[in-house]
Protein 1
Amino acid sequence: MIDEQTAREQVVTAADRLFYTRGIQAVGMDAVRAEAGVSLKRIYGLFPSKDDLVIAVLHRRTEQWNTGIATSAEGAKTPEEKLLAVFDFLSGWFRQDDFRGCAFINSYGELGASSAAVAQVARQQKADFQRYVASLVEELGAPSSLAPQLALLAEGAQTTAAISGDASAAAHARSAAQILIAAALGRVPAAA
């Protein structure tokens, strides 16, 4: 018998893959059981409700997002480079074969009206990202109004890439971000 941590990891991994590929409401717990190789009784012992499982998946997605952003910014020396690294991260993500958009936007779209807990996790991730961008904008010395503009570019690029299937949304958003940053700092924007 597998230990609790391993079972939990198998279930969250399976649920993440299924929810992200097919949609949360289209996936029953029997499908999660079959994919994870963990009994339904054990799954419900770990996650008393499907919402609890969705929240666990979203927490994992938060860790993946934060790690991806941090990894992309590792070589960046300035706040501006760190801000632009967000769009570089998005560019790589959008090119993955299994890219289906933002799991938080997708989850909120499916369950936001019926699950306050899922809505809260999605809102929290978006708020955390906005705070990250705002901290870099502050460090850059740019007006605070730049932060929500850059966050909106990133969010819009995710949605556009998911719907259109065109990974170039990240490059377009990055170019727009460069122009906004230059304008906010009183520089002449470079031609995009």
Protein 2
Amino acid sequence: MTKYIKREMADMNGKGTTQAHYRVKTFGCRTFREFAEQCANGSTVTVSDVVAVVSRIASELAWQIGQGYSVTIDGLGTFSGRLGVTADKPLDNFDSDMEHRNAMSLGFTGVNFRVDKALVGEINAKCFKLERSGECRLRRSPYTPEQRAERARQWLREHTMMHVADYAALNGLSRTTASLELRRLDDDPSSGIVSHGRSSAKVYMLGE
């Protein structure tokens, strides 16, 4: 039986109320081999046939996306490439004519996937019943937003730099909430807190 977990999400709109979201409780991850065995079960194709076909599809997807195409597989969805900065260099200004250097800093960093509605419909058809399996509530900080910001500034006076995990532990917040709050502090010049770096390498420091 498929189970779900009810999650409490942060108040993102400032309305004073939290939102309920739901996620499927997973029981593990099927390996490629296990998946191929299930596909071959009860059919005329062998496990090796399934492995060969899926591997060939993956290889061709890589080629087509790398050439700038999106690929739609009926009953599954549409795949397209996602570009991002791959080199440890900032991009030039938008109006700069140094196109070659920009191109050398870019590459495919992921694949976007838009699911076919037919697949969603089939998943629902094969899910005979959903059963609730607990709740996941937000961690609530004992400090006000102003107190959390001041605690962060005090921490930075002693430690120079701060990661999201530091802010979360310092103020009793989840990592997601801590990240959102630090972003807001970074956007507010009066907070005295600024960020340096990007993604997992981002740190927060006191401004000049």
